[in-house]
Write a structure and sequence with these properties.
alpha+beta
C-alpha cells in the first residue's frame, strides 16, 4: 500500500471533506467560467448584399453607388432577452431585386439546445410558447451565437404585420 492510500485510510473523514471541497470548487468554477463555451459559441459575420438605405428618419443614411437601387430597411427592432441574455438588432430588408431578408446585426446570444430564427407577427416578450399561435415563418437554425447574419425570406412571404 502506498503512502497516500495509508493516509486516506487513517483520516477518512478528512479525506471525504477534502474531496467534497475539491468537487465543490470544480462545480462552482465550471458554472462561473463556463469553459464549454469555447466549443459551443460561434461567430458569423456576413455582409449585407448591399448597404441598407433608411426607411425612416430614425435610420442613418449610408451612401451607395449610383448604379444600383439601394436596399430598404422596412422595419427593425432590438432583441428582448427572455430565458437567456440576448442582444442585437433585427432588420427586415427589401433588396434591390425585390426579395426580402431578415438581418441580425451584432447578435450575442446563448448556445441553447435548439435556437431557431422565426419571423413572427406577434409582439416580443411574454411566454415564448405564444409564438406558435400567431403567424410565423421558420427561417431555420441560427447560423451562430454571435455576429451579423442574413436569412432570406421565402418568395411570397407575407411581411405585413
Amino acid at each position: 500500500m502506498n503512502r497516500l492510500q495509508r493516509m486516506i485510510r487513517a483520516h477518512r473523514i478528512l479525506a471525504v471533506v477534502a474531496g467534497v471541497v475539491v468537487l465543490s470548487v470544480v462545480v462552482v468554477g465550471a458554472a462561473l467560467f463556463q469553459p464549454w463555451r469555447i466549443f459551443t459559441s460561434s461567430s458569423v459575420y456576413e455582409a449585407l448584399p448591399a448597404a441598407p438605405a433608411p426607411a425612416s428618419a430614425q435610420a442613418p443614411a449610408i451612401p451607395l453607388p449610383a448604379t444600383s437601387e439601394a436596399p430598404v430597411v422596412l422595419g427593425s427592432g432590438t432583441f428582448q432577452s427572455q430565458e437567456h441574455e440576448t442582444t442585437g438588432t433585427a432588420r427586415l430588408v427589401r433588396l434591390d431585386d425585390g426579395s426580402h431578408l431578415l438581418r441580425l446585426e451584432d447578435l450575442a446570444s446563448s448556445d441553447g439546445p435548439d435556437v431557431k430564427v422565426w419571423l413572427s407577427s406577434l409582439p416580443a416578450g411574454g411566454d415564448w410558447f405564444k409564438y406558435r399561435s400567431g403567424r410565423y415563418v421558420d427561417l431555420g437554425a441560427v447560423k451562430a451565437t454571435h455576429g451579423n447574419h442574413n436569412y432570406l425570406l421565402p418568395p411570397g412571404t407575407d411581411i405585413t404585420g
